Amino acid sequence: MAAAFIVIDEDIANIRRRRRIFNIRTTISTFDDYFNETDIISRYRLDRNSINEVTLAVAQDIQHETNRSHALTPETQVLLALRYYAKGGFLSELADLHGVSRASASRCIASVSTSIVKRMGHLINFPVEELQKTKEDFHDIAGMPNVVGAIDGTLIPIIAPKDDEPAFVCRKQFHALNVQAVCDANLRFNNVVAKWPGSAHDSAIWNSSSLSINFENGDINGWLLGDSGYPLRPWLLTPVLRPASRAEETYNRSHKKTRNTVERAFGLLKSRFRCLHKSTGCMMFSPGKCCQVVTATCILHNFCINKGLPMPEEIDTEEEDGNHQDHVYNGPLGDGLITRRMLIQNRFS
């Protein structure tokens, strides 16, 4: 009996002495023998120079103080986060691909996303000093004057949260975030609000946003174009729900074609960063972490446009977000009726 105990003790000792094995981690240099620039963009959405630029921007936040326990380098963390943004999917597969644990992969995505929002958030801004150029770009689309942005909301699928779960069930009956964004005629996001649950109405998100206050105070001279889910205001023009004249029909066509830029921007965003699209399932994080991921991908979306990186094929988000006919704003029309009527009379009649 004593011998048996000795064997067990030796086995336990061997387990304790077992050497830790660290897998090979992915770095830019590991791509040299396998991928060209097109392959890297296909997998990470950014080219080598852009990946290095993002890494340099966030390194100070995600650099470990020591290399103890084979700590992940900023470059590996950024590559892991970019791969998740680009492809979505299961964290276990992502972790295996980059030679880390599932828990490390989750922490990397969170820390890199937070740092991108902190260090690169200036890439999402409303260019008040360039409004004339913005208006000209929008006017070139379908003759709609004085437009400084197109606004809409999109649904981002997430896992059912533990707290306040019913609030995140959207009108399409899945758990989601309702993300509001304003874009320019070049599909670049000028304003993003990513903090509301899926059940929130577009008009409620807009009325609570700081951008609406800017328009209310007259800080921005121009119009936003929104769908029927938004209130009609002098600075936020919506379609005529039941057009009764040819002029109103012409206005609606011009409005739809011009406002379509924001739907295209969402389609391009979800094409480039598939973690936001329902085809890859849903984001398996808490709502707060999901909001950080969404904002980070919107920032990188603008970064990619600024860098002139290739655009992936756009995804049709109409089925995902719906046509809003079950989502029409039912509050008071506001004081925008006169503005819209004068526009139709002077420009489209």
TrEMBL record:
<dbReference type="InterPro" id="IPR027806">
    <property type="entry name" value="HARBI1_dom"/>
</dbReference>
<protein>
    <recommendedName>
        <fullName>Putative nuclease HARBI1</fullName>
    </recommendedName>
</protein>
<dbReference type="GO" id="GO:0046872">
    <property type="term" value="F:metal ion binding"/>
</dbReference>
<dbReference type="Pfam" id="PF13359">
    <property type="entry name" value="DDE_Tnp_4"/>
</dbReference>
<keyword id="KW-0540">Nuclease</keyword>
<dbReference type="GO" id="GO:0016787">
    <property type="term" value="F:hydrolase activity"/>
</dbReference>
<dbReference type="InterPro" id="IPR026103">
    <property type="entry name" value="HARBI1_animal"/>
</dbReference>
<dbReference type="GO" id="GO:0004518">
    <property type="term" value="F:nuclease activity"/>
</dbReference>
<dbReference type="GO" id="GO:0005737">
    <property type="term" value="C:cytoplasm"/>
</dbReference>
<keyword id="KW-0479">Metal-binding</keyword>
<dbReference type="InterPro" id="IPR045249">
    <property type="entry name" value="HARBI1-like"/>
</dbReference>
<comment type="similarity">
    <text>Belongs to the HARBI1 family.</text>
</comment>
<feature type="domain" description="DDE Tnp4">
    <location>
        <begin position="151"/>
        <end position="302"/>
    </location>
</feature>
<comment type="function">
    <text>Transposase-derived protein that may have nuclease activity. Does not have transposase activity.</text>
</comment>
<keyword id="KW-0378">Hydrolase</keyword>
<keyword id="KW-0963">Cytoplasm</keyword>
<keyword id="KW-0539">Nucleus</keyword>
<dbReference type="GO" id="GO:0005634">
    <property type="term" value="C:nucleus"/>
</dbReference>
